[in-house]
Amino acid sequence: MVDAAGPFQGQDHAFPRAVLAARAHYVDLADARDFVAGFEAALDGQARVDQRWAITGASSTPALSHAALDAMTAGWTRIDRIEAAISPGARAPRGLSVIRAILGWAGAPVRVFEKGRWTIRSGWSEPRRTPFPGLGRRWTSLAETPDLDLLPARFHPRRDAIFRAGLELPILHLGLWALSLLRRSRLASTLEPLAVLLGEMAGWVAPLGSDRGGMVVSVEGRDANGVRRLARWSLVAEAAAGPHTPVAPAAATLRALLDGRLGEPHATPCVGLVDLDAIVRELDDLPIRTRLESQRPEIPGLFPRLLGDTWDTQPSSVRQVHAGVTPVTLRGKARARGASGLPALVRRLQGLPPTGRHATAVTITPTADGERWVRRFGVRTFASSITADRHDPWTFEETAGVLTFRFGAAPYPGGFSWTFEGWRLGPIPLPRAWAPRIRARTFARDGQDGTDIYRFRVLVAHPWLGVIFGYAGRLS
Questions:
Q1: At what angle are helices 195-205 and 170-184 packed, to 10 degrees?
Q2: Which residue among 41, 113, 240, 397 sits deepest, i.e. has the most Cβ atoms within 10 Å of its Cβ?
Q3: Closest C-alpha to 355, from 463, 466, 210, 258
Q4: Across-strand partners of 357?
Q5: What is d(CA 104, CA 471) in angstroms, rounded to the nearest whole number?
Q6: Rounded distance, CA 445 to CA 453, Å?
Q7: Per residue in 415-436, pLDDT tens?
Q8: What does each C-alpha distance from 284 to 237, 251, 279, 288 come to in angstroms?
Q9: Above 80 in pLDDT, residue 412?
Q10: Do residues 408 and 389 touch, judged by C-beta distance below 8 A?
Q11: How far apart, in whole angstroms, are the C-alpha atoms of residue 285 and residue 68?
C-alpha cells in the first residue's frame, strides 16, 4: 500500500498500523516532520512481528535529499554544512494537500540546527534568492520537513542543516512570506483556511511563470584526505515533469522490496534504503536531468576551482590557458558572423568584429578574483572581466560595459562549456525570458603534429534580433 495522498501534517499512525494489520507492506510520501519523527517508535514493533516493511518519507524529502548526500559525501571525514532547496514551476500541477501542508507551518515556530546548535526560527522566514542550476536564482524560505531532524541525526554537520522551499513567482513567494507574518505576530493561529483561495490565486498568475522546477542539495566538509570540499547535486525538471520527482524514491523502494534487496523488514524513514542511481533511474524517460559536482575551493585559478575533479581530465592546452596563475596570450584565426541591422551596430559598439575571417589574439590576465580578457579581432578590441560570483561558489560572471552575464562551467567533450544562468544591467537583475541565448565552448582538438590545438566557439542570439554575434577559431 502506497499512501501518496497527504497531507500528513497532524496525522497519527492509525492508517499505516491498519495496513500492517492487513498483512501488507506500507510506503508513504510523507513530508510532515512530526509524522516521520514518530513513525519508527509507533510502528517498528508491529512491523517486525508481522514481517512487513513500514517505510515513510519515500519522497523528495527525506529520501532523495539523503540519497544525494550519500553519493556526494562517500568517504568524507567531516561535514560542516548541508543545505537543500526545492522550487516547483508555477505552471506545474499542485494539489490542495500540498498547499494545506505549507500553510500549516508557514509562520509557525520551526526547530532548526543552525550555527552548531538547535534554535527556533519561523516557517517560511528568511527569504533569499537561491541558485538552481539550469533555472537561475529563485526565492526560497525556511521549510519544515523531516530533513530538519534527519540531516543532523545521519550526517552530524558541525554548523548547519537547512531545508528551504520556494515558489517560482516572486509575487507568490513574497506574498506568502507577508501572510506568514500574521501568524508570527499571533494575529492568526493558522493560514490553512486560506488554502483554497490561495490555490486559485496561484492558478490565476501561473501563466506568468514556467513549467520548470528544480531541486538542489549542497554540502561542505572534508574529504578522505582532509581536503576542504564543496559538492552539489541538482535536478531540473522540464515540461511540467516536476511532480514525477517526489514519487521516484517510492518507485525505487518498491522495486528494491520486490527484488528482495531491502533486508529484514522493519519501520523506518526512507533514508539509506535505495541509492541515488536507483532513484534517478525511475525518471529516465522524463524530461528531467540531474548533475553532481564537486570542487576544492582553496585551489588557485577560477576555472580549476569551478570544474573541480573534472579539471584534471581537461586537455593540456585548455589547462594551460585557463590555469589562472600567469598571463597567457593566444594567437590564431577566428571566423565571425552575425545578423545585419541592429545586431551589427551592437557588434561595432562592443568592439566585436564584422563578419568574415580575422587574425585574432586573446590575452588572459589573472586578477585577484578572476581574469581579465582582451580579444583583438583584426583592428577591433573587445574586453571583458570574468570574476567569481560572490554569492554563489558554483558560478562566475562576465562583465562587458554595463551588462553582466552569469554562467556555470560544465564539462564538455574535450573541454568545457559556459552554461548561462542569468544576467543584469549594472546591479539590476533582468528577466531570463528577455536574455539572449548564449552558447560558449572551450575545447581542444589534435593538431597535425600530435599536440592538441586550443579552440573556442561562441554564439549569442536573440529570438527578436537573430544572431547578434558568433565567432569560432583556433589559437596557439
A1: 160
A2: 397
A3: 466
A4: 335
A5: 54
A6: 5
A7: 999 999 889 999 998 888 888 8
A8: 12, 13, 10, 7
A9: yes
A10: no
A11: 20
Residue 214 to residue 136: CA distance in whole angstroms: 10
Element (H, E) at 231: strand 228-237
Nearest of 401, 361, 397 to residue 381 by alpha carbon:
361
Q: How far from each other are the two terminal CA atoms of the chain, in whole angstroms?
A: 64
How far are the Cα atoms of 55, 91, 278 from residue 250, in angstroms, in the given order? 9, 24, 11
Cis peptide before 62 (omega within 30 of 0): yes
Among 175, 217, 461, 194, residue whose Cα is nearest residue 339: 461
Confidence class for position 286, pLDDT limits 50, 70, 90: very high
Please give the radius of gyration of the chain, using alpha carbons only, rounded to the nearest integer: 25
From the list 276, 291, 286, 289, the residue with the least C-alpha distance to 241 is: 286
Q: 14-21 and 39-50 helices cross at what angle (nearest 10)?
A: 0
Regarding pTM above 0.85, the answer is yes
Instruction: Report the alpha-carbon distance of residue 192 to residue 98 in Å, rounded.
Output: 11
pLDDT given at position 448? 62
d(CA 148, CA 165) in angstroms, rounded, equals 13
Using DSSP's 3-state secondary structure scheme, residue 2 falls into strand
User: Which residue intervals of 262-393 are DSSP H helices?
Assistant: 276-281, 302-307, 316-321, 342-350
Between CA 100 and CA 166 the distance in angstroms is 15
Counting residues of the chain whose pLDDT is more than 90, the rounded percentage is 68
Q: Taking Cα atoms as reference points, which of 378, 413, 371 lies closest to residue 396? A: 371
Would you state the cell numbers that stand for residue 326, as one nine-digit string? 600567469
Question: How far apart (Å, rounded) are the C-alpha atoms in residues 358 and 352?
Answer: 11
The 3-state DSSP class for residue 114 equals strand
| Cell numbers that stand for 212 in this block | 520548470
Q: Give the DSSP letter of residue 326.
A: S
Here the cell at position 327 is 598571463
Cell of 299: 585551489
Name the one residue in this structure whose C-alpha cell is 576555472: 303
> Would you say 359 and 471 are in contact if contact means Cβ atoms under 8 Å apart?
no
Q: Is 88 left (phi over 0), alpha (psi -120 to 50) or beta?
A: beta
Cα atoms in the 13 Å half-sphere on the side-chain side of 64: 32
pLDDT at 449: 63
DSSP annotation string for 185-213: TTS-S-SGGGHHHHHHHHHHHGGGS-S-E
Tell me the C-alpha distance between 267 and 247, whole Å: 19
